[in-house]
Predict the 3D structure of the following.
Amino acid sequence: MTLKVTVDRKPEGVAVIYTEGYINNQGGEEIARVAFDLIGDGHKVLLLNLEGTKIVNSIGISILIEIIEKMLEIEGKLAFCNLTPTIEKTFHIMGLTQYAAIHADEVSAVAEMAGR
Amino acid sequence: MTLKVTVDRKPEGVAVIYTEGYINNQGGEEIARVAFDLIGDGHKVLLLNLEGTKIVNSIGISILIEIIEKMLEIEGKLAFCNLTPTIEKTFHIMGLTQYAAIHADEVSAVAEMAGR
Amino acid sequence: MANSAILREVTLTLPMLPDMEIAASKTATAMAEYMQMSSDKIDEVRMAVVEACINSFEHSDATDRKVYLTFAVLGDDEPEKLQISIRDTGHGFEPTEVEEPRIEEKLRSERKRGWGLKIIQGLMDEVEIHSGRDGTRVVMSKLR
Amino acid sequence: MANSAILREVTLTLPMLPDMEIAASKTATAMAEYMQMSSDKIDEVRMAVVEACINSFEHSDATDRKVYLTFAVLGDDEPEKLQISIRDTGHGFEPTEVEEPRIEEKLRSERKRGWGLKIIQGLMDEVEIHSGRDGTRVVMSKLR
Ligand SMILES: Nc1ncnc2c1ncn2[C@@H]1O[C@H](COP(=O)(O)OP(=O)(O)O)[C@@H](O)[C@H]1O
Ligand SMILES: Nc1ncnc2c1ncn2[C@@H]1O[C@H](COP(=O)(O)OP(=O)(O)O)[C@@H](O)[C@H]1O
């Protein structure tokens, strides 16, 4: 059950992180590692496209809070797209949506984020 | 867990039966009912497209033997397409493949069956 | 009384080992699909079950290293409710003493975790926690 | 000896009711996926488990109306083999007296059924049947 994480640096300046699989403990850590690498490279606008993730757990998600914390610090931006309804509901329950926008799909997310 | 069964009467003279769901006892009976209706309407060439079926059981499959029996009697033809590897293997184990051809997809099946 | 009869019940015992919560989530899916629950609701049940299993794995310290689950379909005649119980034989805890997590605080705190119970409560229709020295049992249910 | 240690084991108890074999097939899937078995092999395991459950449902006449399953991942260190046991407390049968089904005969016969055991044997790597007055236990396994 290892999460696959890949990255696409869009010309619009948004770095998109794609996941495939279960976001558990290790999955969350892997995403954070990739995100912090991107931030280290100067990326301040990150989009997490979770289309390939149908299941998460709260340990995995709490690790994502570290990315949000970092974004507040550097005045960057993290957003999500392609969430299952349950993952979206979970993000609402946690209040994550106050700090990270949720977009329906990647195209609209990138358009919105690049235009800030 | 009810099986959905639909039919498409092709201009080539092949009647294609589509299934969606689990072929268990009732599922097999439903397919047989539809097949015998088609045979009653004069159709002698039937194709069972199982693309929408990922799981079967032996009770469901044994009911399909009744259709093969009928086809031998009326000198008709029954074939299958879009089987999962396991369903195909099961048909081999049972020896069904001696009496009913297996085709990879519907297009090649219809071409082959119409040309008989 | 509505939803009183147990129409069918499945029990599952899992070892407390990585990824075994997935077996629980699949059993939940099988029962919910049998009831013809919508796929969104099934997903919510799956996630809640995963959270409850992980809590037992991580916090119970149960010496038998096992989690005991039952999945009951309740209803009068027709299936109406899926009730899932997740039990361990660990040291238990006091649910009323668990602090409610708040995102504003988590953002400043070292400890980002502590969301499991809140998520379970948010995703299921009913949740009861029985916990004591003999262990913990979480009973959660969702209407079809 | 290879494949000797049980790395993890899950148990499942099912009522003998329509569609409950699907719960067994999902548990099998969870264990096989954990072992990273190929999806084709997983499918074969699923089908074999379904057949064994249905046999217990239909033929055992067990008064408790339950089927008891265990799913064990075996191996030395790395998961190598998935071993599944399907047990009922019914009246049992004599496997050597079961006639091998042949399609030519089934085509002429009233009774088209009788394929379950042959399919299980064809799909799994190893199959053992223990049956007697205390019931039946089918133990089947597949290498990763
Ligand atoms: N099965 C359990 N056994 C013992 N303690 C538990 C159990 N489930 C929950 N707890 C306690 O409740 C707290 C909150 O759990 P939860 O909300 O799921 O967040 P987290 O698991 O991230 O800490 C845990 O930290 C633990 O102290
Ligand atoms: N669990 C069981 N309890 C009692 N009898 C069984 C059991 N499993 C199989 N049998 C016997 O073996 C026979 C063959 O089973 P099988 O090959 O699965 O075909 P089918 O179930 O279609 O008859 C059954 O008809 C039954 O007599």
About this structure: Chain B touches chain C at residues 1 (CB under 8 Å). Residues B 58; D 55-56, 58-60, 88, 90, 92-93, 98, 113-117, 136 surround adenosine-5'-diphosphate (ligand 2) (CB under 6 Å). The beta strands of chain B are 4-9, 15-20, 45-52, 77-81, 101-103. Chain B has four helices and five strands.
